[in-house]
Specification:
This protein is an alpha/beta fold and 337 residues long. It has helices at 65-74, 84-93, 135-146, 170-175, 191-199, 223-228, 230-251, 259-269, 273-282, 296-309, 319-322, 326-335; strands spanning 11-14, 17-20, 23-27, 57-61, 79-83, 97-102, 108-112, 126-129, 151-152, 160-164, 182-188, 203-206, 217-222.
Length: 337
């Protein structure tokens, strides 16, 4: 069984015109996917090539990780910035997608619920994750096991239960927790920063404290895109590496953070600038270009843990077939990194 191609070269209404696009990228409006944001406001700081590749690209913001998976499986999108474990699970069933680069490294936080000051106080509480097939869920599982706090399948006052909820619903769900059942949540930014800003919550830890510069989201495409449009895909990946170089330069500069990058991130995520500033400075996210080259050893760690320990992946993943590192390597060479 292969992925549906019913939407291949689909027409979209863009600025009143029917436009045929070749690559349709699903994504979430989160910092992890900031490579998709226009960087025009940063041109005075760093050089990003002015290319016409986006004449052939359609960006499709979605509201949940499951929508990205459904879009890839139906063919409504043929590429995505997606959760790595989610892409692995899909590849295990339908091996017609290919991971070509990491989208970022690091960048998530665990935020405490009301009254929680120490990890041990999470006993008997629920910790929310953005999806069961997420790096955040894997890191939480490792962390709780390391601290002797077993993840319970059923609510137990001596254990911690976990629950997956759509990422963008986390602020609302936590704000309505009148029973104080939610001990914490772990997720991407700026969602964590939103709850910190709006509800006065506090960050318990940064996921870089659990796994420094861990991968989380990646750019994956239908194999047909790779086979039919390799030059276009290469141009796109190269542009992403140019953008990563720019973001890395700006985010790595001495504080205070340049207001231009805060504006870029605020426009992309739809969050207020104070929220985005907190996310950019406190989440630990990095776009260091060399870290965006797919690392099969890191992927093996994820695959083995989520398949063997957590039993969330249906079968071991053939990483050699799942990953194509050549586009990232060529991009690095083109960018002179």
């Amino acid at each position: 069984m292969g992925l549906s191609n019913k939407a291949h070269r689909k027409k979209y209404k863009i600025m009143g015109l029917n436009v045929v696009v070749d690559i349709r990228i699903g994504h979430l409006n989160i910092l992890d996917h900031l490579l998709l944001a226009p960087l025009d406001g940063l041109q005075s700081i760093c050089d990003v090539p002015d290319v016409d590749i986006f004449d052939h690209i359609y960006l499709q913001p979605l509201n949940a990780w499951d929508q990205i998976m459904a879009g890839l499986e139906s063919g409504d999108i043929n590429a995505a910035f997606t959760s790595i474990p989610l892409a692995m699970a899909m590849f295990s069933r339908i091996p017609d997608i290919v991971l070509v680069m990491f989208a970022h490294r690091g960048g998530s936080r665990m935020v405490a619920g009301r009254g929680i000051r120490r990890i041990q106080e999470l006993k008997g509480k629920t910790v929310l994750v953005p999806h069961k097939l997420s790096i955040q869920n894997m890191l939480l599982h490792q962390f709780l096991n390391a601290n002797g706090l077993i993840c319970a399948k059923e609510h137990d006052k001596q254990q911690i239960s976990t629950e997956a909820v759509p990422l963008f619903l986390l602020p609302e769900i936590t704000s309505r927790d009148s029973a104080n059942d939610i001990g914490a949540f772990i997720c991407e930014d700026p969602i964590a920063a939103t709850v910190i800003h709006e509800n006065g919550a506090r960050s318990l830890l940064n996921t870089n404290d659990l796994w420094l510069n861990h991968p989380s989201s990646a750019f994956a495409v239908h194999r047909q895109v790779l086979n039919d449009k390799p030059a276009m895909l290469q141009d796109l990946v190269t542009l992403f590496f140019h953008r990563a170089t720019c973001l890395n330069t700006v985010l790595g500069s001495l504080p205070p953070l340049n207001p231009a990058i805060v504006q870029v991130a605020a426009d992309f995520t739809g969050q207020p600038e104070p929220v985005v500033l907190n996310a950019l400075t406190e989440s630990g996210i990095t776009f260091a270009p060399k870290l965006l080259i797919p690392d099969i050893d890191l992927m093996e760690i994820i695959a083995q843990y989520m398949c063997g320990t957590m039993k969330l992946l249906p079968a071991p993943v053939n990483l050699e077939a799942f990953i194509d590192i050549n586009f990232a390597r060529q991009a690095v060479a083109c960018c002179g990194i």
